[in-house]
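Contributing new complexes? Match this layout with S-adenosylmethionine.
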Amino acid sequence: MIEMQKEAWYFQEDTVKNYEHFYQTKYKKADKLEKKLLKKMLDTMGHSEKLLEIGCGTGHFTRWLNSMGLECYGLDLSHLMLKEAKKHWPTGSLLQSESSHLPFKDKTFDVVVFVTCLEYMPNIIKVVNEAARVSRKGIIIGLMNKWSVPTMRRIIQIKRGKNPYYSNVRFYSIFDMKHVLKEALHDNYVIGFWSTTAFPKIFGDTESKLLPFGAFLGVAVKLGEKVD
Ligand SMILES: C[S@@+](CC[C@H](N)C(=O)[O-])C[C@H]1O[C@@H](n2cnc3c(N)ncnc32)[C@H](O)[C@@H]1O
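Output block (do not edit by hand):
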């Protein structure tokens, strides 16, 4: 499975070098909305100090979490993404590793965070299971929502071979994520909160739970609590 990932865009110099720039340009507004939702999810976890961001890429969100005074660690499969991350965060704690076998003891972190990366991981059940093993309180998940207009556009781009960033990707809705969590964590968790960043042009800068069609889906998973 990992062999398959070697062809992915995060192992290509030309695609990696443009990645962080998108947050200052075409994804500037989305970035703001995503951070607002991530912060809300983090608040549902209670007091947290030590965080791991899996699939941290260039460390965009790891740095942001660290700037809130949290002790943050970033982990990623791609040495090229981590090289970029080092440029932006020379003192950061960054580690190259594969997400389905984490090199940490049980309950090392308060919270484990995934932002737009589970989509790229072939063995999602094992990855979520590993995240739960190394986390004390919970897991925060941010995803490109399958039930959204931007993802429909992405699917068309994939079919036309137009966008290298979406090769080997799988999209999830809240419905899919509930199944993934059940399979990975059995009954030992609750979904503390989920929401989507609402489609900005229609709803304004709000979040939308009743309409799960926003571009970015956030799911906050609390561990050690029973599903109702
Ligand atoms: C779209 S990027 C997201 C980066 C960052 N979280 C962000 O939102 O800016 C997806 C990241 O997942 C990483 N990734 C993919 N498969 C992985 C795996 N099996 N283990 C660890 N990281 C992986 C890629 O290297 C890439 O950096």
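Reviewers usually confirm one structural detail per submission. For this one: The chain has one domain: 2-16+27-223.
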